[in-house]
Amino acid sequence: MSFLVDSIIMFTSQVLFFGFGWLFFMRQLFKDYEVRQYIVQVVFSITFAFSCTMFELIIFEILGALSSNSRYFHWKLNLYVILLVLIFVVPFYIGYFVVSNIRLLQRQKLLFACMVWFTFMYFFWKLGDPFPILSPKHGILSIEQLISRVGVIGVTLMALLSGFGAVNCPYTYMSYFLRNVTDSDILALERRLLQTMDMIVSKKKRIAMTRRQMYQRGEDQNKQTGLWGMIKSVTSTQTGSENLSLIQQEVDALEELSRQLFLETVELQATKERIEYSKTFQGKYFNFLGYFFSIYCVWKIFMATINIVFDRVGKTDPVTRGIEITVNYLGIQFDVKFWSQHISFILVGIIIVTSIRGLLITLTKFFYAISSNKSSNVIVLVLAQIMGMYFVSSVLLMRMSMPLEYRSIVTEVLGELQFNFYHRWFDVIFLVSALSSILFLYLAHKQAPEKQMAL
Amino acid sequence: MASLDRVKVLVLGDSGVGKSSLVHLLCQNQVLGNPSWTVGCSVDVRVQDYKEGTPEEKTYYIELWDVGGSLGSASSIKSTRAVFYNSVNGIMLVHDLTNKKSSQNLYRWSLEALSKDSSPTRVIVSNGDYDREQFAENSVPLLLIGTKFDQIAETKRTEVLTRTAFLSEDFNAEEINLDCTNPRYLAAGTSNAVKLSRFFDKVSNPQPGYRYRILWHDLRILDHVMSFFVFL
């Protein structure tokens, strides 16, 4: 009986998540486009719904809601469904829509889509070979094989985003890095931009005029016969077209310049807006936060290096460690079990909410930046794939943040994976990503004022 | 009737509707082979003969300013874009016939361009909403262009054309539906070509402050007055 009740609860929550994913898709992602293939929206919402259900199950685990059997059953069910979606459904549809965009392969769409899917499966399988992720007791066709590979991809993505985010966050928040931009700078650049456009216009007018004259003269010259007429027509058109190609080259150079000036002006406007924002109360608050974040970022890089160098994997989670410290060193006594449950719930809840929100915002930004009318379907499906893999691996990694008694369900469901490997891999990629972001931002920051002075 | 030495026409519309292909077709009389994203603004020049064959014949160089971008761009991009909207003589609003949202977005595009125009004869005060009366009084000639006409199935054509007819009424503008990869749509003598040259004539020879349409409520008052006299 309780199993039925639990299943109803799970199903209702899944429908809610599905609806939320649907709305998000319609209102945020596909704001400017028309949804013509509803299957894309359905697939995206399904991926989102099942990923969120996994997080929900972790919360239920900590809170002890629902009976342990039904939790286990739903974990397994959810896992199978999401693996099915991530490995079979989404890649197949990505292949299908990519093939539909290419005109040549229109006839045999399904066949080519299947071929694309098989190529994907081949590379997906090959991915597992260089990593020591499997213990030998698993067979070839087991869930662990699939999860381990999905986990590797997802953890790489998480670490990349995490590393870049950790560095970018203080850079964006702190006003220390803002360059000084005055209104007159912007006006001067805008004037130059308009002057360049005027020059382009006058040169194009010359080209049009010359072409017209050549065309008219060409008509007159068609009436001229004889050898002399032919020689005259050849020489005059040659100088005409030489002139034209010269002017055309100048126009191309000017157009390139106008594009650069436009982008420069956009950057200056953006900096000016950020300066204005930093003077507001919100801006000052974020500036303050930025200092904290930079310390946190430095600490995380330091810890990642230590972990790799000393080959150390944290055995205890932050909650138990924190409680240990308070009890042993500060001598404060309190009900460990009760508090550990509540604190883990809050901590895990915060991690889940911020990671979902952060991922959705990043995905939306990517989508706006790179999608066009033709490729919107493909890009949304790629984003759904990334989202699914990201959420599956965050469940994997979250295991480390939970106290021992809650870890067991994750270990049971996901099978005997080498969890330590994933944490090590996360640290490595995080370090690489953070350091390269620092380098990249440093170069970009240095280059910008130089460019301004050169223009 | 004043004639202008610089004629500037804006080409506005959502990203990917075909503005660059359209401008290339109008100015070079050729189909654009490799369309790519427009960064900033690209200008091209069209040679237009006004009153050809008459003694008042004049050749105009109409500048078509193809402004790239989308309505959802960051505000820094929008403020930079506003630089191109100064002293505009005409606007071509381009939408994709296969994408309803691009047609709906044209209201916002036209408002963005008309409200940023800083020349003193243009006064459009808007709170961001579309106002039919202001479009009726607007003195900047508008032209509505629907692209990708060939991609609409025969069965859906009437539905799409009804929709665009409503749109052109709202903007108080003529409409042209074509496919930018086929010069046949703008061949000399077609109704499209006639509408196009009429638009360019209006743009290069602006009639001072003359309302071309009577507003509907004016007509109704006239109706009441007439019926009153009938009863007398």
Determine the structural class of chain A based on helices, strands and strand pairing. Answer: mainly alpha
What's the overall geometry of chain A? globular
Radius of gyration of chain A (Å) = 30 Å
Number of helices of chain B: 7
Query: How many strands in all of chain B?
Result: 6
Percent range of helical residues of chain B: 25-40%
List keywords for this structure.
heterodimer, A: 455 residues, mainly alpha, 13 helices, B: 232 residues, alpha/beta, six-stranded mixed β-sheet
Write the layout of secondary structure elements.
The complex is a heterodimer of chains A (455) and B (232).
Chain A: H1 2-29, H2 38-63, H3 68-101, H4 109-126, H5 143-173, H6 183-223, H7 226-278, H8 281-309, H9 318-328, H10 336-370, H11 376-398, H12 404-414, H13 419-454
Helix pairs in contact in A: 1-2, 1-3, 2-3, 2-10, 2-11, 3-4, 3-11, 5-8, 5-11, 5-13, 6-7, 8-13, 10-11
Chain B: E1 7-13, H1 19-28, E2 41-50, E3 58-67, H2 75-81, E4 90-96, H3 100-116, H4 132-137, E5 142-147, H5 157-171, E6 174-177, H6 191-204, H7 216-231
Tell me what the structure shows.
Chain A has 455 residues and is an all-alpha fold. Chain A is built from 13 helices and no strands. Chain A has helices at 2-29, 38-63, 68-101, 109-126, 143-173, 183-223, 226-278, 281-309, 318-328, 336-370, 376-398, 404-414, 419-454. The radius of gyration of chain A is 30 Å and the shape is globular. Chain A starts with a helix and ends with a helix. Chain B is α/β, with parallel strands linked by helices and 232 residues long. Chain B is built from 7 helices and 6 strands. Chain B has helices at residues 19-28, 75-81, 100-116, 132-137, 157-171, 191-204, 216-231, and strands at 7-13, 41-50, 58-67, 90-96, 142-147, 174-177. In chain B, strands 2-3-1-4-5-6 form a 6-stranded mixed beta sheet, sandwiched between helices. The A-B interface holds A 31-34, 190, 193-194, 197, 200-201, 204-205, 207-209, 212, 255, 258-259, 261-263, 265-267, 269-270, 272-273, 368, 372-374 and B 14-16, 27, 37, 39-47, 61, 63, 65, 70-72, 74-77, 79-80, 83-84, 96, 98-102, 105.
